[in-house]
Design a protein that fits this description.
The structure is a homodimer.
Chain A lengths: L8 H8 L7 E6 L7 E7 L2 E7 L9 H13 L17 E3 L2 E7 L11 H17 L13 H11 L10 H15 L6 E4 L8 E4 L2 E5 L6 E4 H12 L9 H14 L4 H28 L12 H11 L11
Antiparallel strand pairs in A: 1-2, 2-3, 3-5, 4-5, 6-9, 7-8
Helix pairs in contact in A: 3-6, 3-7, 4-5, 4-8, 6-7, 6-8, 8-9
Enzyme class (chains A, B): transferase
Pfam family, one (chains A, B): APH
Keywords (chains A, B): Amino-acid biosynthesis, ATP-binding, Kinase, Nucleotide-binding, Threonine biosynthesis, Transferase
């Protein structure tokens, strides 16, 4: 639940003077998102999302994120589209924070995932990857393989507070990933955080992606590796290969994987599990007492990591 | 910030089958309100508020609250209006909680109070009191004078954790209030919680009241006593008699106070300060570690209580 910065009625009225969006009708803080302050803003011209970027988002990255949403929207990918002010700028300041207004996206994220969600998702990711091909800005994925050791070091032996022996297990796992991490796979702009709560559906169709604040340049197949973890495990921790196949095959109908990508899927999925395990572990060990947002249990991703480690090839994901 | 119950896309789609509101377009949890789970619900017919009533609201009280909103709205008082389902019922169940959909009210609550807010407020309260006169249901104010001693006893000597000697001071104060509490003042349906965040303004006009979940039958002037505390102190704790006069005079243009009401204003204001001091004190001493909602500082209302105790007559509130 996230509204970290209080914005008064006077603040928002003054802010809207910079836009051609009419007058404010109502504004309500949204209890979703953990990184930024988000408000649903109704004006005399429509409904928008106002975001104030809090400290976990780097100000220098914002032109990449906002520019990407502009770029994708112009190519027919449904996502929040930044509203530009009268001076042409989409990125401004409000209450001492970088701030932007984006369009409101119809739909809700699916709380119970079924195969058809995975199929629509796979296809839409491939379309997004294609649309991002000529995006001129670049941003390194600082939460890819080279970013994991600093995170693990920061947790140190305290990983054993979660489970005895975990610190050693993760050290071994990370060394394996660092050595075996694939190079030379097709790269491009990826979303890098395609959890179900960032994908909206409306009337059975995927109505758009939100929350591009981890987007970066990286191996395209890594976006799918994140989704194998986030969409294809059941709540009892069992892996659902039918969902995985639907996801990957739908993607391949738009952009077929190379043989190298297919063979790399298990290690990419291990890496994606490691990335979310490490950030959750760090947040679990370091969350302040009384924080608004309850940290997510890192063990969920430990189980997923172990699953992918035991996988021997893309057949485990329903591909032959 | 409050969304205590997770409602899935499937849950809300099924729930909407009971209404003539069209299909769901989006639903977002609102980070406001501390008692219930509130969602901004967009459908193909408009925008609504969906509320799930959590444990602090008694189920048996809901027909009073929802009926009152219906009654007031039918008499031109702007407030959320319950939407009735196809079977005529406004109160239903969702995710194991009592739930209702109400209309969406335009406007925002004022974060910086000025005199014109107080003037509009006074007039609108008087209109609400008049409109409530023939409401047939009744509900006791269980947070009026007879409800304060159990709260104080529940805090006990721990009040001294806030300030040395506070426990004794509140005992003395409460005895005084119990002895001097006025009877025979004009009664009716009051809102009983008219803090600024429950009063919306739009384009300079009061656009409605929300959050009727403390509404009850009590002395009408007590609603004004709550507002003297919630609207007429500056952030530096100084009392602004100009705001108080604007509030009370605008009320009196619709319904003049009797002489007994005028003379009772200081003790009613003391009582209202005691009521919010005690609930805040109780919450302060009893909030669970890591709770989502930070408890409000009870000392703010201790200062207000002491101010009203020193008042000798309605002149302190700008009335002559």
């Amino acid at each position: 639940m996230a509204v970290y910065t209080e914005v008064t009625d006077d603040d928002v009225a003054a802010f809207l003077q910079e836009y051609d969006l009419g007058e404010v009708v109502s504004m309500k803080g949204i209890a979703e998102g953990v990184e930024n302050s988000n408000f649903l803003l109704s004006t005399t011209t429509g409904t928008y999302i106002l975001t104030l970027y809090e400290k976990r988002v780097k100000r220098d990255d914002l032109p990449f994120f906002l520019g990407l949403m502009d770029h994708l929207a112009a190519r027919g990918i449904r996502c929040p589209t930044p509203i530009h002010g009268r001076d042409g700028e989409a990125l401004r300041e409000l209450c001492g924070r970088p701030a932007a207004i984006v369009t409101f996206l119809q739909g809700m994220w699916p709380k119970r995932i079924d195969v058809h969600h995975c199929r629509k998702l796979g296809r839409a990711i491939a379309q997004m990857h294609a649309a991002g091909r000529d995006f001129p800005l670049t941003r390194t994925n600082d939460l890819s393989v080279q970013g994991w050791r600093p995170l693990l070091d920061a947790c140190g032996a305290r990983a054993d507070e979660i489970e005895s022996g975990l610190s050693n297990e993760l050290q071994t796992e990370l060394e394996g990933l660092e050595q075996a991490w694939p190079a030379q796979l097709p790269e491009g702009v990826i979303h890098a955080d395609l959890f179900p709560d960032n994908v909206f559906f409306h009337q059975g169709e995927l109505s758009g992606f939100i929350d591009f604040y981890f987007a970066c340049n990286d191996q395209l197949a890594y976006d799918l590796a994140v989704c194998l973890n986030a969409w294809c495990f059941e709540t009892n921790s069992e892996f659902n290969a039918t969902k995985a196949r639907a996801l990957l095959q739908a993607y391949q109908e738009v952009r077929p994987f190379s043989e190298a990508e297919l063979q790399a899927l298990p290690i990419l999925a291990q890496g994606a599990a490691m990335r979310f395990l490490l950030t959750r572990l760090f947040d679990w060990l370091n969350h302040p007492e009384g924080a608004y947002v309850a940290p997510k249990d890192p063990r969920e991703y430990l189980r997923k990591l172990r699953f992918h480690r035991a996988v021997r090839g893309p057949g485990a994901y329903g591909l032959t």
